[in-house]
Design goal:
Strand content: 5-15%
InterPro entries: UstYa-like
Distance between the termini: 137 Å
Order of helices and strands: HEEEHEHEHHEHH
Structural class: mainly alpha
Oligomer: single chain
Pfam families: UstYa
Shape: flat
Keywords: Membrane, Transmembrane, Transmembrane helix
Family: Belongs to the ustYa family.
């Protein structure tokens, strides 16, 4: 018989060529999966770095607002559930970065009675917390809708900062106590005084200040001179000035005065002055506030 050459099944030249094809596809598929894995790990690492950065910023700066208004808003709406993926959109942008010592005696509590009285009665800080905010900005902070700003009613609304409201309440309480001390008729309604006491108590509870004040023998004047971290009131004043509500609480005893009479006190460089002058029939050089150095 003639010699017959047998080749193993599947190992002829054609089969050998075909056998390379699945191995090549498998190798390419593995390479792609490897690249995707590396890309996923890289993106995950970047995400972790970003989250750590945001966490560090929040720890470093502390809360910007004691309420949720203006504290944080989502960077991306769909990621709102992740608190770290939010950025600060401050109202006044205040942080506790000012060193202020506790003081038992202050100009508002000690010294000549006439001087103390003058400080409380003539304190205008409480009147300067009325602000006007753009409606879109207020909405971005999650603020409730408020009454329209008289001189730009379609775009702005009126709000009052909580700190200034508290000063207003303290002033009312002092005036009531002073009138009682001097057997004078009360000019502030009792219910208003109670409201102020309740509001201040609520704010103290809300703040829940946990600063430990040191004590001395006898327990007198705890924390006297001890430094604490405060917000800078002057920066709040700057914010209020930039968003002036043009309000001045003139003639508080007059309960029938039209509110419009109290909202013509915009800053002297306000763009609303021409409109105010026209509305009240005032001369073109009229200014709401005295110019420093003028008589």
């Amino acid at each position: 018989m003639a010699n017959i050459k047998y080749d193993l099944v599947g190992h002829d030249s054609e089969s050998a060529d075909n056998d390379e094809w699945p191995r090549t596809v498998k190798q390419k598929g593995a390479s792609r999966r490897y690249i995707w894995l590396l890309a996923t790990l890289f993106i995950s690492a970047l995400g972790n770095i970003f989250l750590l950065y945001k966490l560090n910023q929040q720890t470093k700066l502390g809360p910007i607002s004691r309420t949720h208004y203006g504290e944080k808003v989502p960077v991306f709406p769909l990621l709102a559930r992740f608190s770290l993926l939010k950025s600060y959109v401050p109202t006044a942008g205040l942080v506790n970065d000012l060193d202020v010592p506790f003081a038992w005696d202050t100009p508002f509590s000690s010294g000549d009675y006439a001087e103390v009285n003058k400080l409380w009665y003539e304190d205008e800080q409480s009147d300067k917390g009325i602000i006007s905010l753009d409606n879109d900005y207020a909405e971005s902070l999650g603020l409730p809708k408020s009454q329209p700003f008289a001189w730009d009613s379609k775009k702005k609304s009126i709000y009052i900062t909580n700190g200034h409201h508290n000063l207003h309440c303290l002033r009312n309480i002092y005036i009531s106590l002073d009138q009682f001390r001097n057997n004078q008729s009360q000019t502030i309604e009792w219910q208003h005084v109670l409201h102020c006491l309740g509001a201040l108590r609520d704010d103290i509870m809300c703040n829940a200040d946990d600063t430990p004040r040191f004590t001395e023998k006898g327990g007198r004047r705890p924390g006297e001179g001890q430094v604490r971290k405060c917000r800078d009131w002057s920066k709040l004043q700057e914010f209020v000035q930039e968003h002036a509500g043009c309000f001045k609480y003139i003639h508080p005893e007059n309960h029938t005065m039209e509110t419009i009479e109290r909202v013509k006190y915009c800053p002297n460089d306000s763009p609303y002055l021409p409109l105010i002058r026209k509305y009240f029939g005032l001369p073109d050089d009229w200014l709401p506030w005295p110019v420093e150095g003028s008589k």
